[in-house]
Design goal:
Layout lengths: L1 H30 L7 E5 L6 E5 L5 E4 L3 H28 L3 H4 L4 H9 L2 H8 L8 H19 L4 H6 L8 H15 L2 H15 L1 H4 L26 H21 L4 E9 L10 E9 L7 E7 L2 E7 L8 E3 L3 E7 L5 E5 L2 E2 L2 E7 L2 E4 L1 E7 L7 E8 L2 E2 L14 E5 H4 L4 H8 L5 H9 L6 E7 L4 E6 L3 E2 L10 E2 L9 E2 L7 E3 L5 E4 L19 H13 L6 H8 L6 H6 L3 H7 L3 H12 L10 H30 L3 H10 L18 H20 L8 H4 E5 L10 H4 L1 E5 L19 E2 L2 E3 L2 E5 L7 E3 L17 H6 L3 E2 L4 H7 L2 E7 L2
Helix pairs in contact: 2-6, 2-8, 5-8, 6-13, 9-11, 9-20, 11-20, 13-14, 20-22
């Protein structure tokens, strides 16, 4: 027996030794992929050395002798930290994820190929002037990426997934820009469910959705469609599936979805320094690595501290000593779904302007890892690609086309951002903004000379009179026709307004031309809160005041929903504990701080109220789709105030339910769920215990790799449609934050070299790198770090220096 134990012990020690060696080898292999930030490297194509100083956050400060060298070096360094992120973005936009991730991503690839992002990019690249400054910069940047990919160790993820490197081209850059435009668009999620409500339930059910245009805006002191879209139940199911797969794809690939943003510029006459203040925090879904790559670029005649997206050489956010800007999502509706009538005698034809026209067809092949290739037939009508064909197994009776500004306009977006990176006057910034056709963005700009400006940048489409594009349009009528586009001068915009500040928070704007701009705008409550606080302080604004505003945790949305329901809840309270909880809701000011119980109780009750009132009419698929839209946020306060709404009746029962019945059902369901999930002890109900952020790497979705790649979960304050917009889905507790401030930036143009920012995770996407997650704690705590711009500050902050030398 002793001998047996001895043999087993020896075997165990051998196994542990082998495991330790394997683990050490794995760590060594991973560390061999770490970025090089000191010494020197030779780069093909450089004309002169480029010096790169790395600061304490891993941000590179590049000093080059020409713009060509500057952008080549930027591409190389960007790839060194983020090549896998670039690869995933490229593959998502091109519809090539199944090739590395397997059959589960075939539906995703079908969707993005149907959207024609790659095909449109291949057409658009022909219009790039590669002899012009923006074209030359783009090519130099791509050359830098490709040189890194060809000459340096590839990311660990490439080996794990078996990715075979392919050269990056301008087509990839434009395809990713198309994905960015798609991620802004809410039409695919919203129009099917609103049309379903109109056509299947009727106008009485539609009234809770706020579809009106407000000529005076929604901050500060409905057209009708011409008829039902001819869709069958299978058509509704297919369109709901498009929305579902679209959302899932972004999570599986770890590619950020753009959701909303805050930005404001305050005139010098309202600031303590006498110079404008600029603040911005774009709201984007969380992923790992973080969306933005920061870099400070300097060459003769040009300097910019920028925030860059993968495969784009031009900063989407930036500043220097003279000017800066931030972006928010415009939320204009630049997509229309159009229901077409197929020719019963020829399925390859549809009705268009009174005659049958042929559909354009092309064949593509989706490569599938460990599986057979999947053939795909894509069809295009005069209104755009047929979106219903994404899922052949759920085709309905009516083809549905997607009309999209991105596919129907020139969109010289590269020129726009090249110029915006150099826009040191109002006129230059305005001109650059006018070149952005899609996606729609708000450009909020300020300068050290004292000017502030805002331009809603998009090519706004003209639609036929009395058409409401919130619904699927009929391709058989004039309502689907597009007479043209409005002038940029008709877009909403302001320059140096008398009030002394500009604020943009994805709310419906007021165009000075009076031209309505249909869109899927966010709740006005966040914008109203920001406007209230900006108006309340007429002078003395500092960076610290703007910081407090970015971190504000309050809006009136919760109290606004609860106000008409609190008397009912008080009558329903069955014991002292319930009465105490209702008292907390009655006293609650809408603040979502980590230690409070009220936000947890409200958000669970809100979900249960929506489910109890609406799920029976909509069914599982359409209700789930509605929860992914902004329409539900607008609907619930209106529903709460209307005791006669037909939504209150439960169609599954013979009894006719009232608002009282559904509110009581929702309240009891909320309490029951929280007790089951978090226990009866109220400390388990605090917001921080139930509202957490997890930064998930694409490979971190595979256990046990989540322990290696992912960061979190971490308890956070803030919440859905609050200035500190760490947004959770409308669903049951506990909640995982899905998106939030992708960076927070604060710039006082009296001292732009002292500007502040924070990254949600870290600068690097390379596992085990020191900057993989070194900012996550500061971000959660609401702390900021300097964006070094002054030469002396850069020298002081330098932790290492890398010199990129011309290859001999």
């Amino acid at each position: 027996m002793k001998r047996l134990f001895k043999v087993l012990f020896v075997l165990l020690m051998v196994l542990l030794t082998v495991a330790a060696i394997a683990l050490a080898a794995g760590v060594w292999h991973a560390r061999s992929k770490l970025p090089q930030r000191s010494g020197s490297l030779a780069l093909e194509g450089l004309r002169a050395p480029v010096q790169v100083n790395w600061d304490e956050r891993g941000v590179p400060h590049l000093q080059a002798q020409s713009e060509a060298d500057l952008y080549r070096a930027l591409g190389f360094l960007h790839a060194q930290d983020r090549l896998f992120q670039m690869e995933m973005m490229r593959r998502l936009a091109r519809g090539e994820l199944a090739e590395i991730l397997g059959a589960n991503l075939v539906d995703t690839d079908r969707l993005f190929r149907t959207l024609e992002l790659r095909a449109h990019a291949e057409e658009s690249v022909q219009r790039i002037d590669f002899k012009g400054p923006s074209g030359q910069a783009l090519q130099a940047y791509l050359d830098g990426i490709n040189e890194f990919q060809d000459t340096r160790p590839l990311p660990l993820e490439f080996g794990l997934l078996g990715i075979q490197p392919q050269p990056y081209t301008a087509v990839d850059t434009l395809a990713v820009a198309g994905y960015l435009a798609y991620s802004f668009a809410a039409g695919l999620r919203t129009e099917p469910v609103l049309t379903y409500v109109r056509d299947q339930l009727g106008p009485d059910y539609l009234r809770v959705f706020d579809l009106d245009w407000y000529p005076l805006g929604v901050v500060g002191p409905m057209a009708q469609s011409r008829g039902p879209a001819p869709l069958a139940q299978a058509d509704w199911q297919a369109l709901a599936r498009v929305a579902e797969v679209s959302q899932q794809a972004l999570g599986l690939a770890g590619v950020p979805l753009f959701e909303g943003s805050n930005a404001w510029a305050i005139s010098g006459r309202r600031t303590a320094s006498g110079k404008p203040l600029l603040a911005g925090d774009p709201h984007i879904s969380f992923a790992l690595p973080a969306v933005w790559y920061e870099a400070h670029l300097k060459a003769p005649g040009f300097e910019l501290y920028g925030h860059f997206l993968g495969l784009n050489p031009f900063a989407l956010l930036g500043h220097n000593q003279d000017f800066g800007w931030s972006l928010t999502m415009f939320q204009n509706d630049d997509m229309d779904l159009v229901a077409l009538r197929a020719n019963p005698a020829n399925p390859r034809q549809v009705a268009y302007r009174g005659q049958w026209v042929d559909l354009r067809r092309r064949e593509e092949l989706i490569q599938v890892k460990d599986g057979e290739p999947v053939s795909l037939t894509l069809q295009r009508s005069p209104h755009g690609p047929l979106i219903h064909q994404v899922f052949p197994d759920s085709l309905g009776q009516s083809p549905v086309a997607l009309w999209w500004t991105l596919l129907e306009s020139e969109n010289p977006v590269l020129d726009a951002f090249y110029e915006l990176n150099r826009a040191d006057t109002l006129a230059k910034a305005r001109s650059a903004a006018s070149k952005i056709h899609a996606p729609g963005v708000n450009v909020v700009w300020a300068s050290a000379s004292g000017d502030i400006g805002w331009w809603a940048a998009a090519r706004l489409v003209q639609r036929a009179a009395a058409v409401n594009p919130s619904f699927i349009l009929s391709g058989d009528s004039a309502e689907s026709e597009k007479p043209g586009f409005y002038r940029f001068a008709d877009n909403p915009q302001e320059e140096n307004p008398a009030r002394g500040y500009i604020m943009s928070a994805n709310h419906q704007p007021v165009p000075r031309s009076g031209v309505p701009v249909p869109g899927y705008y966010n709740l006005p409550d966040r914008a109203r809160r920001l406007d209230q606080l900006l108006r309340s302080r007429t002078g003395g604004w500092t960076v610290q005041h703007s910081q407090a505003l970015q971190l504000d945790e309050t809006t009136d949305y919760g109290p606004r929903v609860l106000r008409p329901l609190l008397p009912l809840l008080r009558e329903m309270a069955r014991d002292p504990v319930e009465r105490s909880l209702i008292d907390q809701l009655a006293e609650w000011d809408g603040r979502h701080n980590a230690g409070s119980i009220a936000p947890t109780l409200f958000n669970q009750f809100l979900y249960e109220l929506a489910r109890a009132a609406m799920a029976d009419e909509l069914g599982k698929a359409q209700f789930a789709n509605l929860l992914r839209t902004r329409a539900i946020d607008h609907a619930l306060p209106r529903l709460a105030t209307d005791p006669l709404s037909p939504w209150w009746d439960d169609r599954r029962s013979e009894k006719k339910e009232t608002r009282n019945d559904i509110v009581q059902r929702a309240w009891q369901a909320a309490l029951e769920h929280l007790r089951e999930e978090r226990g009866a002890a109220l400390p388990g109900w605090t917001w921080g215990r139930n509202h957490q952020v997890l930064h998930a790497h694409p490979l971190g979705r595979i256990k046990p790799l989540d322990w290696v790649f992912n960061i979190g979960p971490l308890e956070v304050s803030g919440g859905r449609e609050i200035p500190n917009n760490l947004s959770q889905p409308l669903g049951p507790a506990p909640w995982q934050v899905t998106y939030g401030p992708s960076t927070r930036r604060l710039i006082d143009f009296a001292a732009p070299g002292q500007a502040l920012s924070i990254n949600p995770i870290g600068q690097s996407g390379v596992l085990f790198d020191a900057h993989y997650s070194d900012q996550v704690r500061d971000y959660v705590a609401g702390r900021y770090q300097p964006m070094h711009l002054d030469a002396a500050d850069v020298r002081k902050a330098t932790r290492s220096t890398l010199v990129l030398q011309p290859a001999r």
